[in-house]
Specification:
Layout (H helix, E strand, L loop, with lengths): L3 H7 L12 H14 L4 E3 L1 H5 L2 E2 L2 E6 L2 E4 L11 H6 L6 H7 L3 H7 L3 E5 L19 H34 L1
Parallel strand pairs: 1-5
Antiparallel strand pairs: 2-3, 3-4, 4-5
The protein binds protoporphyrin IX containing FE.
């Protein structure tokens, strides 16, 4: 799905008789047009996440949706990193790099809308499975305690027996 302005631009129906501009320019025109109209689209997370290939790549940074497709080849950090952050909130990844001011200014070109925050899946936190107190564990514990007590006694007994045996000889 694309924004209204983008739909018009990417539809190929340029009725002025001129050939359509390259896709990167079309995205910029679309972004500009929707900016001017003051209407940025609100996208659902699933929709944004579905644009996850080199030729169609959308990312989410700080609640905003960026179509970085025309930027894939130009990104100094490479296209793999951009692809790797599709389908998630890339804010931390973006900030961790420490992008420059000029990088941040560049972002406006690719801004196509906002993300509907309520559609972002909640982060799953790892919950350590509760240990169910089972009889098996209790039994193992008891056996270890018994062995801890018995083994030294057995060793002592054995030593004593050997001593008695060698003495009597
Ligand atoms: C629209 C979004 C983005 C734009 C416009 C952008 C732009 C840039 C620019 C201009 C640079 C050169 C260094 C600088 O000026 O800071 C850069 C480097 C880099 N970017 Fe991005 N970037 C974007 C998103 C991301 C994301 C989401 C990641 C994910 C981790 C990322 C990872 C990197 C990496 C690894 C470098 C190389 C840093 C280095 O070699 O020092 N970028 N980016």
């Amino acid at each position: 799905m694309v924004g209204t302005a983008e739909r018009t631009a990417s539809g190929g129906s340029y009725n002025c008789g001129l050939p359509a501009p390259p896709i990167s320019e079309r995205v910029q025109i679309a972004a500009l047009a929707s900016d001017m109209a003051g209407e940025k689209k609100v996208f659902g997370f699933e929709e944004v996440a579905s644009h996850n290939v080199t030729k169609d790549c959308w990312i989410i940074i700080a609640g905003k949706v960026y179509d970085v497709t025309p930027f894939m080849d130009e990104h100094p950090g490479g296209d793999e990193v951009l692809l790797a952050v599709t389908g998630k909130d890339a804010t931390n990844d973006f900030e961790d790099i420490g992008h420059s001011e000029s990088a941040r200014e560049m972002m406006d070109k690719y801004h196509i809308g906002e993300i509907d925050a309520s559609t972002i899946p909640v982060k799953r936190t790892h919950v350590t499975p509760q240990q169910v107190p089972g009889n098996q564990d209790k039994g193992a514990d008891a056996l270890i305690k018994i062995l801890q007590f018995l083994v030294p006694i057995l060793i002592l007994g054995l030593a004593f027996a050997i001593r008695q045996y060698t003495k009597s000889e």
